[in-house]
Design goal:
By secondary structure, the chain is of the alpha/beta class. It is built from eleven helices and ten strands. A six-stranded mixed beta sheet has the order 6-5-7-10-9-8, sandwiched between helices. Strands 2-3-1-4 form a four-stranded antiparallel beta sheet.
């Protein structure tokens, strides 16, 4: 039996949602609300307060909703000929959306209005509750390039190269690249040798014209960890924000992520990203990398952030 979804691996992004609820009433009731002559005080002010509280407590009423920190709640009312329309807008910067918070907010506003107006109108009806729109999450950052991007996966490890240890990290990277619609055009295993790493990075960039090169291994502080130095030597431009984002994402899940010296950058039109050697660390790094890294290719073509 399944329960609440695990969103711990999702990145935090700005997420918004708008919902509406419509309460059908008599035209005379609308005039009473306009004039402020209803028996139960300022019905709109009370409904707005109730709706705001409901949005904050959505997870307490709907079992599988996550407890989300809300950054903004806005409730507006439109008094029409024979209805009161509530529109609720909710925003958060978190891992999952706020559509249920917006829907609950609007619905509770309508029900509160119903409760406060029932002494003067026995024919009221909540006629509609619906989501108007939602935005946010990684889907908003997906990009279409008209072709499949090509990548080389470079495993850097003395023990894997010697055959004494099986490669798992490179295979994990390959699977996750394919899941992000990136073709793994080459997969190569190298020892922890600085010159060989530099040579491979130049070949994949300059001759093979790969869109991506993702390395795994050699990013720590061990005596044979040279991957960051080799990578910096071949880069035209460094993408410091990419490397820091991978570390920040990992650090929130493991206190060891801060020890990674991984770098990222661009050589020609090829994006090169270092990743640690551990399978778990590689998985987290790939989760943090996509889909944001894909925007680099539009920038490389001079299209900026448009």
């Amino acid at each position: 039996m399944s329960g609440m979804l695990n969103v711990s691996r999702k990145p935090e992004t700005l997420r918004t949602a708008r919902a509406e609820a419509v309460l059908r009433v008599k035209p005379e009731t609308i005039e009473l609300v306009r004039a402020g002559k209803t028996p139960k005080a300022d019905v709109l002010a009370v409904a707005r307060t109730a709706a705001t509280l409901a949005a904050k407590k959505t997870s307490e009423m709907i079992p599988y909703c996550h407890n989300i920190p809300l950054d903004q709640i806005d409730v507006t009312f439109s008094l029409e000929k024979d209805s009161i329309r509530t529109e609720a807008s909710v925003a958060t910067t978190w891992k999952t959306g706020v559509e249920m918070e917006a829907i609950t907010c609007a619905a509770v506003a309508a029900v509160t209005l119903y409760d406060m107006l029932k002494p003067v109108d026995s024919e009221m009806e909540v006629s509609r509750i619906r989501l108007l729109e939602k935005h946010g999450g990684i889907a908003d950052f997906q990009e279409d390039y008209g072709r499949k991007l090509r990548a080389a996966v470079l495993v850097i490890s003395d023990s894997v190269h010697e055959g004494s240890r099986e490669d798992k990290s490179g295979k994990t990277i390959s699977r996750m690249l394919e899941a992000n619609s990136v073709e793994v055009a080459d997969y190569h295993i190298l020892p922890d040798d600085r010159e060989k790493i530099e040579h491979a990075l130049k070949k994949f960039s300059d001759q093979d014209k790969m869109d991506f090169i993702i390395t795994t291994g050699g990013t720590g502080v061990g005596p044979r960890d040279f991957t960051p130095e080799a990578t910096r030597n071949v880069l035209d431009k460094e993408l410091t924000g990419v490397a820091e984002s991978l570390r920040v994402y990992g650090q929130r899940r493991s206190p060891l992520a801060m020890l990674s010296r991984a770098v990222a950058g661009v050589r020609g039109n090829t994006v090169i990203v270092n990743m640690p050697g551990g399978t778990k660390a590689v998985t987290e790094s790939m989760e943090a990398l996509f889909p944001g890294i894909l925007h680099t290719f539009k920038m490389l073509k001079g299209k900026g952030h448009g």
